């Protein structure tokens, strides 16, 4: 955005979001979501509204400056780090996994000599997602997560879990969402960049954009600063009768199943600033910008039909016929979306401090699509 003023949450007062956006988040809370927020921007005009609460015990209200776990929105940050390293010549998107992690990705159809960095960040590698391993699913979605959320597991072990299963398809011959891809991409970035990935993220993205509320956790299990409680039903099948648990404290740092694939913490303001920079091409030269927005169709019945995936960024058709660009993410206790028009003039950040959607919507994805469409109309 050059030298133009960038509006932030510090620019007070902020008007409430448009009635059609408020109506959706308020309905979600009426139907069982603990709390939901929406921050919208149209040019320099920033609006913010919240429904529900940050803490169901105290009734504490949600506030604009709070931090929350952003789940797979982290992948857009990870892709940006990798693409900036590529722009600097520190690594190449044509580098194979074996170039940086020799011998790690091998077995059951996985071949690190054929899978490139580009395959990883575009989700076209065919590498099996470690989260679909039955033992990991038991620890991730079921009551085992209540203790498993503090598990520490090395990235190398996550890759070994993945390669214990057959590859999904030969490299470049399909598309499938796999957190393993982004764990491998971050491991390669560390080897190439010579720093822990959290430090690369800070140096390449967050400090550059002034994102003071965004970070990738280290060993800590708490969220720094003001934040909502994060609530989970620990139910992979979406059981509406499953008990609700407070899972605010969890390990999402370096030695976790989340890390560079889903472990970051951010704020509404920071997410808008990041997406705007990505949409406007502020973070990387045109060649790498083109790489980020070169998309592959997402197979039907995976997300919203008609979605496309680039490098950590996706496009999504909305119920009103428009197309939104950005990224969404889930981690236990939190769903987050940050989306905008392709030119970055209008954006919306929306988050709910739980991991389920009311029965009114077919899924959490359809709930967020309705909120996003209410702004990008």
Describe the structure.
It comes from Streptomyces blastmyceticus. This is Serine hydrolase domain-containing protein. Pfam families: Beta-lactamase (PF00144). One of its GO terms (molecular function) is hydrolase activity. This protein is α+β, with helices and mostly antiparallel strands and 377 residues long. It is built from 13 helices and 14 strands. β10 and β11 form a beta hairpin. The longest helix has 15 residues. The N terminus is likely disordered.
List keywords for this structure.
eight-stranded antiparallel sheet; 13 helices; alpha+beta; 377 residues; two-stranded antiparallel ribbon; single chain; Beta-lactamase; disordered N terminus; 14 strands
CATH superfamily: DD-peptidase/beta-lactamase superfamily
Average predicted local confidence, pLDDT: 93
Major sheet summary line? 8 strands, antiparallel
Strand order of the largest sheet: 2-1-14-13-12-11-10-9
Task: List the uncertain runs.
Answer: 1-5
Oligomer: single chain
Name of the top-level CATH class:
Alpha Beta
Topology:
Elements: H1 19-30, E1 35-42, E2 45-52, E3 67-69, H2 74-87, H3 97-100, E4 106-107, E5 110-111, H4 117-122, H5 134-141, H6 145-148, H7 155-163, H8 179-193, H9 197-209, E6 231-232, E7 245-246, H10 259-262, E8 265-267, H11 268-280, H12 286-292, E9 296-297, E10 308-309, E11 314-317, E12 323-331, E13 334-340, E14 346-352, H13 364-375
Antiparallel strand pairs: 1-2, 1-14, 3-8, 4-5, 6-7, 9-10, 10-11, 11-12, 12-13, 13-14
Helix pairs in contact: 1-13, 2-8, 2-9, 2-12, 7-8
